[in-house]
Amino acid sequence: MSRSGRAASAAGHGGQHAAVETLAQRIFKGTYGEGDTLVVPELMAELDVSQTVLREAIKVLTTKGLLDTDPHRGTFVSPRDEWNLLDTDVLRWKLAAGVSSDFFADVLELRRSVEPAAAALAAERRTDADLAELDAALRTMAATEDDPALLVRADAAFHTALLLASNNRFYAQLRRVIVPVLVERDRAAPASERRFGHPHAAHAAVVDAVRDRDVDGAYMAMLELLDVSAREHP
């Protein structure tokens, strides 16, 4: 491909990405409601993209459950229960648009189903490298008394390390859902507003059980950590 051809390809890819982001943001902000039909010629002119670029952008959003097509209706916004919140882009757009307390409650229910079991598996299967990652997250957490932003990063690192330490490929993948929501929740509730003390001790209890290969202890310690989290973020 010639240099001009490569430049055109890059420009087209950039235009597609921008179109995907714009359309997704409009869907999540409610500019386009469920069932609304997209008028392709108008969007091409408004976004200043070719029909090919817009079609590719629509294809991306269709695979993520945000859009659907019908021979009679054309391209339209899918019902919300079709949106794939396990997709990292969809979750990112959802968080950026703002979420309600019931959204965090739903994620907490997911965490209660996943993280205690992941902790139990970590106690059984963890490696020295897994422990090193957990210990590193704990050390950072211990040093965050006056640094809320650092505490958010330490908490994210801890839960990432724990899910990976389960050595279960599906639990490990769920870090892509759980951790971004934790970060958004913690940003919305600064450490200065904590009612139940610094979280280091509760996290350390999980790591101690994982270190000791105490399967039941790890499960219960993680469940207690989540109970504290639920009280901290009602």
TrEMBL record:
This protein's record includes keyword Transcription: yes
InterPro entries on file: GntR_C (IPR011711), TF_FadR/GntR_C (IPR008920), Tscrpt_reg_HTH_GntR (IPR000524), WH-like_DNA-bd_sf (IPR036388), WH_DNA-bd_sf (IPR036390)
Limits of the HTH gntR-type domain: 13-80
Keywords noted in UniProt: DNA-binding, Transcription, Transcription regulation
Taxonomic lineage from the root: Bacteria, Bacillati, Actinomycetota, Actinomycetes, Kitasatosporales
UniProt-listed Pfam families: FCD, GntR
SUPFAM superfamilies noted in UniProt: GntR ligand-binding domain-like, Winged helix' DNA-binding domain
Protein name as it appears in the record: FadR family transcriptional regulator
Organism: Streptomyces lydicus
Source domain of life: Bacteria
GO-annotated molecular function: DNA binding; DNA-binding transcription factor activity
